[in-house]
Design a protein that fits this description.
Elements (H helix, E strand, L loop, with lengths): L2 H13 L7 H9 L1 H19 L9 H14 L5 H11 L6 H23 L10 H11 L1 H20 L6
Helix pairs in contact: 1-2, 1-3, 2-3
InterPro entries: Anti_sigma_zinc_sf
Organism: Tunturiibacter psychrotolerans
Protein name: Zinc-finger domain-containing protein
């Protein structure tokens, strides 16, 4: 066992020293001085915690607390922010659950719709061959092709003018 694995197991050894699963930890602590020091430190801390006694509350603690709570609940909050704060602090939050559920449903719908649109689900359009797609592109670009033809035709008479007309 290495020290890194032994550190969390020291607490288990302190809480239940007779457990058979702690045999490896005990063997490591006997062979490793750093882990033995950590074990002794934890033992001292646990011994100190065992001697500590919680102070007894005053006999009027419950009555004072009840009076204090009644005073706080009867005070009118100063403004709308204070009313909201007191509602959040003193209420159980049951009145917010329907609004929260509706808001989460709306977020899921918007998020799901956005995701469905972004993933680009295949539409029901039939698949076309490459030749048909090329012909569709040519139909769409017919105007550009006509313009190119006109440019080529404009160049053709200029070439003919260089030749001598025969008469």
């Amino acid at each position: 066992m290495i020290c890194k694995d032994c550190q969390p197991a020291i607490l288990d050894l302190l809480l239940d020293p007779a457990a058979p699963a702690n045999a490896d930890v005990r063997a490591h602590i006997e062979s490793c001085p750093a882990c033995a020091e950590e074990f002794k430190s934890m033992q001292a801390t646990f011994a100190l915690l065992d001697t500590w006694q919680a102070p007894d509350p005053s006999p009027y603690f419950d009555q004072k607390l009840a009076v204090r709570l009644r005073e706080e609940q009867t005070l009118a909050p100063a403004g709308w922010f204070e009313q909201l704060k007191s509602r959040l602090v003193f209420n159980t939050g049951r009145q917010f659950r329907p609004a929260l559920a509706g808001g989460l449903a709306l977020i899921l719908l918007v998020g799901g719709g956005t995701y469905a649109n972004l993933t680009g689900f295949p539409h029901s359009a039939p698949e076309t061959s490459a030749a048909v797609q090329d012909l569709q592109i040519l139909d769409k670009n017919d105007q550009a092709l006509q313009t190119m033809d006109q440019l080529l035709q404009d160049d053709a008479p200029a070439d003919d003018s260089t030749t001598q007309p025969s008469s």
